[in-house]
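Priority: medium. Attachment 1 of 2:
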């Protein structure tokens, strides 16, 4: 077998694990998770043995100084740590601790907007003549005093807020406390690229870049057209949901900026750029660059909202594989801090187990979300306790709090997350659904994650091999991953009925089942998959 391990970059071989720091582990008893909390849990994430989770890179959502209008995605200083989360020295210890265990550190970078409390915005809003005025996006009112155009905010209402002092509106496509930066200003661009260098010098291995598809908007500020397919049930306040983001997203000019961001990363060895990108495939694929000179991993969320059907998943993978140019490396995401929990979204625990076997065996870099490994389901947050601005503005059913409840470590009060009342309530199932209890249960979802990750690590074919689908019944998905003479066959039953598969495999052996209760030679009569069962054959 070729020695691919040494020549392929870590971000192709490895598995990324997202940590939402507010909800992972509180170390100082204030009810909010922090960086020392993450440090204390590094052995859980990877201690080099199959008893730990076994992930390769940690992506940590924002921990910058922030007034928390959008829980850290409103940054008031790009080069520091909010005291709520710790100090720069804590961050350095975290990088050192992760690197010592062979894990990389990826941090969130929020280049589209700052907090309205960032010194740049405080200066810019002072007057039209401020030297930093054009670091943000300002426009005059229409003659009748209304906003410059029809653009809506993702979080409800118009994307413009009026500043009486200077008589202009500023742009914000999220809450009004998140004014948008003007990437056409060379000074702003230089200042932002320097914030990347600040962290690169501190040893971070890459960035997850927030909404990079929004960095450039139409210079003429043309109105977005109405979306003819908008869901009629959308909140009346959801102006953005009723529009097609023709003039606010994926503008051609953005690619020159992404190339400069990439060049900045390439001033250092072996770093990765991951982008949060949502557009349709032909637009999305452009973020790899014409020859790979933009992002190594534009996040691919396409599997996340598929119906729970083998064929839908297979088509989604096939479309992606067909769209990728040869130099582009795929990646898949099934959950994050903005989406309902995957166990709730796909129908339950059985589906969550099958979903992770899919995620960890497809061709491409998988990203896991903290808590999914213990099968966390959507938290139940009483309406008056909703924290998320999206939930407050667009209705409880749009609240992202459901996927941000505290990590459940053990059966002690507050699930071992904190000594204090947490910022969001711990889910009621914590006495059974927690890391300590599930670790002791050999058949638990947590042990399935561990075994899958370990198996993936032991089999380069699963990390780097080619992907080919195999014939299978309608409700099943079957594919093989091949590298040199190593072959892994994956079979997934999406139905609640038993399924029989005949596979083109001689002398095969069931290596791993989502039910964790079988390891046997493959019967010559074929493979029987139980309801919702997935099996890896080698
Ligand atoms: C995407 C982030 O994932 C989300 O949490 C945030 O609210 C918006 N970008 C705005 O920064």
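Attachment 2 of 2:
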């Amino acid at each position: 077998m070729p020695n691919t391990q040494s020549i392929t970059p870590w971000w192709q071989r490895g598995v990324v694990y997202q940590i939402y720091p507010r909800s992972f582990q509180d170390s100082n008893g204030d009810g909010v998770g922090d960086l020392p909390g993450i440090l204390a849990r590094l052995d859980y994430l990877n201690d080099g043995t199959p008893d730990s989770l076994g992930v390769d890179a940690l992506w940590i959502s924002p921990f910058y100084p922030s007034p928390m209008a959008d829980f850290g995605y409103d940054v008031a200083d790009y080069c520091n740590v909010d005291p709520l989360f710790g100090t720069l020295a804590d961050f350095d210890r975290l990088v050192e601790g992760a690197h010592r265990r062979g894990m990389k550190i990826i941090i969130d970078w929020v280049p589209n907007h700052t907090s309205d409390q960032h010194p740049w915005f405080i200066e810019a809003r002072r007057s039209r003549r401020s030297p930093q005025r054009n670091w943000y996006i300002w426009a005059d009112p229409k003659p009748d005093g209304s906003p410059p155009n029809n653009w809506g905010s993702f979080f409800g209402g118009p994307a413009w807020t009026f500043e009486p002092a200077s008589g202009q509106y500023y742009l914000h496509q999220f809450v009004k406390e998140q004014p948008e930066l003007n990437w056409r200003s060379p000074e702003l661009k230089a200042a932002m690229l320097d914030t990347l260098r600040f962290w690169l010098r501190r040893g971070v291995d890459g960035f997850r870049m927030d909404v990079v598809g929004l960095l450039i908007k139409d210079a003429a500020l043309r109105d977005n057209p109405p979306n003819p397919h908008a869901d009629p049930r959308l909140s009346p306040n959801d102006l953005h949901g009723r529009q097609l983001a023709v003039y606010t997203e994926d503008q051609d000019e953005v690619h020159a900026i992404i190339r400069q961001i990439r060049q900045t990363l390439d001033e250092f060895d072996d770093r990765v750029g991951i982008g949060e990108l949502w557009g349709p495939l032909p637009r999305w694929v452009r973020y790899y660059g014409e020859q790979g000179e933009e992002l190594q991993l534009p996040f691919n969320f396409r599997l996340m909202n598929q119906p729970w059907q083998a064929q839908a998943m297979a088509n989604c993978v096939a479309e992606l594989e067909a769209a990728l140019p040869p130099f582009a490396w795929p990646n898949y995401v099934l959950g994050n801090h903005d989406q309902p929990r995957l166990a709730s979204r796909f129908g339950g625990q059985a589906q969550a187990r099958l979903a992770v076997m899919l995620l960890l065996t497809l061709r491409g870099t998988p990203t896991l979300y903290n808590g999914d490994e213990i099968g966390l389901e959507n938290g139940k947050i009483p309406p008056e306790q909703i924290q998320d601005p999206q939930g407050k503005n667009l209705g409880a059913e749009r609240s992202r709090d459901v996927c941000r409840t505290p990590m459940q470590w053990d059966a002690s009060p507050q699930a071992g997350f904190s000594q204090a009342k947490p910022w969001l309530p711990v889910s009621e199932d914590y006495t059974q659904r927690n890391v300590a209890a599930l670790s002791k249960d050999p058949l638990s979802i947590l042990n399935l994650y561990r075994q899958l990750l370990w198996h993936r690590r032991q089999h380069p074919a699963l990390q780097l091999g080619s992907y080919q689908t195999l014939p299978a019944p309608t409700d099943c998905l079957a594919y093989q991953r091949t590298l040199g003479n190593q072959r892994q066959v994956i079979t997934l039953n999406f139905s609640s009925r038993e399924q029989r598969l005949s596979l083109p495999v001689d002398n095969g052996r069931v290596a791993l089942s989502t039910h964790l209760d079988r390891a046997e030679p493959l019967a010559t009569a074929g493979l029987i998959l139980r309801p919702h069962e997935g099996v890896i054959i080698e």
